[in-house]
Design brief:
CATH class of the largest domain: Alpha Beta
Largest sheet: 7 strands, mixed
Structural class: alpha/beta
Number of strands: 12
Number of domains: 2
CATH superfamily of the largest domain: Vaccinia Virus protein VP39
Order of helices and strands: EHEHEEHHEHEEEHEEEEHHH
């Protein structure tokens, strides 16, 4: 079984496929840093660094399954004010159609944020895939339900050529708490109540203490008003530092190794050397266990 990975990013789809014994023969991304990181972890895979709007898909190796994570920037609610680059980001999904038209693989699996379904051209995209023989089933799944210690809801569009969309079912693994990967004795800590600390952060910490005691997580931004228990999966990781650990009167941001575990990547998976770049790639990635779960059930129906 051979697969390719479009918009491969950090490599969550590739990891998930390889865990099933699938040979990921080709991976592509427009960002050189992501391609370098993917290649460092998957040296047997051929790589292309290119804007996939302009790719010649006739040069891509033949494959049985097409995996793709088009940009979510234009769909996510975190995008802020609309800008022209969001239109370009949304249109990356058309590369999936172009590649499928050339190769007609047995199965296609696409990952994005659930808000993709509100894209004005989403019905047209679905019709284009249907014209190629794929009826794309929609599944909004939470990575926590396959044992990833993070609540991360994502849209998976799955299709098998010339067949109805496969019924994936619902994952029901026991939830793994954030405490499973948090390292309370490690890292660089600072006082919670230090000069310059934002009043909103201090307010969240106070609310968290009242509810959870001395140890918990707190979000630096988002809609969470107070803290978050470490005895449940962490909330969705993003491309910017989001969660801090609170331990009594001290706090620190989530470490890269903790974020890697929260995403379900193996402990020896190589990441960029800088904290900012590593967290950015992790926040954009597909959780490998979720990828394995979806791919496995898609191929069962193929």
């Amino acid at each position: 079984m051979r697969a390719i990975d479009l918009f491969a990013g950090l490599g969550g789809f590739t990891e998930g496929a390889e865990a099933l014994g699938i040979d990921v023969v080709w991976a592509a991304n427009h960002w050189s840093a992501a391609v370098e990181t993917h290649a460092a972890n998957h040296p047997r895979t051929a790589h292309l660094c290119q804007d996939l709007h302009q790719a010649d898909f006739s040069l891509v190796p033949d494959h049985d399954i097409l995996l793709a994570s088009p940009s979510c920037v234009g769909h996510t609610r975190a995008r802020g004010k609309e800008a022209s680059h969001h239109d370009a980001a949304r249109s990356t999904a058309w590369a999936v159609v172009s590649c499928a038209e050339v190769h007609r693989p047995r199965a296609v699996v696409v990952e994005n944020v659930p808000e993709m379904r509100g894209w004005a051209l989403y019905p047209a995209w679905r019709m284009a895939m249907s014209a190629l023989g794929y009826q794309m089933g929609e599944h909004v799944l939470d990575a926590a339900d396959v044992g990833v210690p993070q609540h991360r809801k994502r849209l998976f569009l799955v299709g098998v050529r010339d067949r109805m969309p496969p019924p994936l079912g619902v994952p029901r693994e026991a939830h793994v708490p954030a405490s499973a990967f948090l390292r309370w004795d490690d890292g660089t800590w600072s006082p919670v109540d230090r000069p310059g600390r934002a009043a909103s952060t201090l307010s969240r910490v106070d609310a968290g203490r009242a509810r959870f005691g001395g140890r918990f997580l707190v979000a630096y931004y988002g809609t969470t008003e107070g803290g978050r228990s470490a005895e449940r999966p962490i909330g969705t990781l993003t491309t910017h530092d989001r969660y801090a650990l609170i331990d009594g009167d001290r706090m620190r941001m989530l470490a890269v190794g903790e974020a890697r575990a929260a995403m379900g990547f193996r402990a020896d998976y190589r990441l960029p050397p800088t904290h900012k770049l590593a967290m950015h790639m992790l926040g954009n990635a597909v959780c490998p266990p979720m990828a394995s779960w979806v791919i496995s059930r898609t191929l069962d129906a193929a």
